[in-house]
Amino acid sequence: MLGPFYNHAMENPATFVLVGIPGLPSSHLWLAVSVSIMYVIALLGNSLIVTVIWMDSTLQEPMYRFLCVLAVVDVAMASSVVPKMVSIFSGRSSISFTACFTQMYFVHAATAMETGLLLAMAFDRYVAICKPLHYKTILTPHVLLGMNVTIAVRAATFMTPLSWMVSHLPFCDSNVVLHSYCEHIAVARLACADPRPSTLYSLIGSSVTVGSDVAFIAASYNLILQAVFGLSSKKAQMKALGTCGSHVGVMALYYLPGMASIYMAWLGKHAVPLHIQVLLADLYLIIPPTLNPIIYGLRTKQLRKRTWSLLMHCLLEH
């Protein structure tokens, strides 16, 4: 009974080797610098948003609470890959077996949470614009908590079977991962067994999750646009469109490169060069956390004013 499991465990390597961007080793130095700069901006920007929303009693509407959770998820998503990515670009490319699958779990769980939060934020805008008189009665604190818990549970429910399937594959040959983080398809392709069950699960699960979220988001914004263009005041129209514009920009940053990355990885290097696949997958995890706070900070007037007020207060105190 114990023999097959013992042999399977012994076959797995103690470490994996991440190559960074395959075929572009000469670019690793400037990539390390660029990624580090974006990571610092992401940390500062998202931390500032969380701090402002947490400290300011006037920013307690559901929209800002969702934005606060999104900022925390963005920091977690970037932090799960960027420090290791920079060390790879600097020449330290090994990662332990356990650390690799831990990274895989948190990276993909964070991306699943992000799409759920974008859907929740679209629903928030729908209620605020289409049912303004019922806004506070629909989006109560208990409802917000339930939505956030549901988003987290859905991400864990999706990722737990995937991580289990990939981590229980036998790895008895190469331990060189042609990627800059433990992306599940890149790792699964190293297995001695057939990786198709896990890759199919990932493709179908991602397509269903993202596809349903995008469909509901599109339906929400269709109703929002109908309501906005039905307003008699041009000023009210522009205010509503301005708030929704920031959301649409964030969604485009997330969904377009994200889905392109998933399908490119599935098609393989024969369809799209491997270095393009890896670069897109890297940027998909770094650019949204970097730009989300900038977009929301610039496009949301109340948040911009409160952030500027907090910064000026801190500067004057020092």
Automatic annotation (TrEMBL):
This is Olfactory receptor. It is a multi-pass membrane protein. Keywords: Cell membrane, G-protein coupled receptor, Membrane, Olfaction, Receptor, Sensory transduction, Transducer, Transmembrane, Transmembrane helix. Residues 45-296 form the G-protein coupled receptors family 1 profile domain. It comes from Catagonus wagneri (Chacoan peccary). It is found in: Cell membrane; Membrane. GO terms for molecular function: G protein-coupled receptor activity; olfactory receptor activity. Its main location: membrane. Pfam families: 7tm_4. Odorant receptor. Putative odorant or sperm cell receptor. The keyword Disulfide bond does not apply. The chain crosses the membrane at residues 29-54, 66-85, 105-123, 143-166, 214-232, 244-266, 278-298. Belongs to the G-protein coupled receptor 1 family. GO terms for cellular component: plasma membrane. The keyword rRNA processing does not apply. PANTHER family: OLFACTORY RECEPTOR 52I1-RELATED, OLFACTORY RECEPTOR 56B1-RELATED. Gene3D superfamilies: Rhodopsin 7-helix transmembrane proteins.
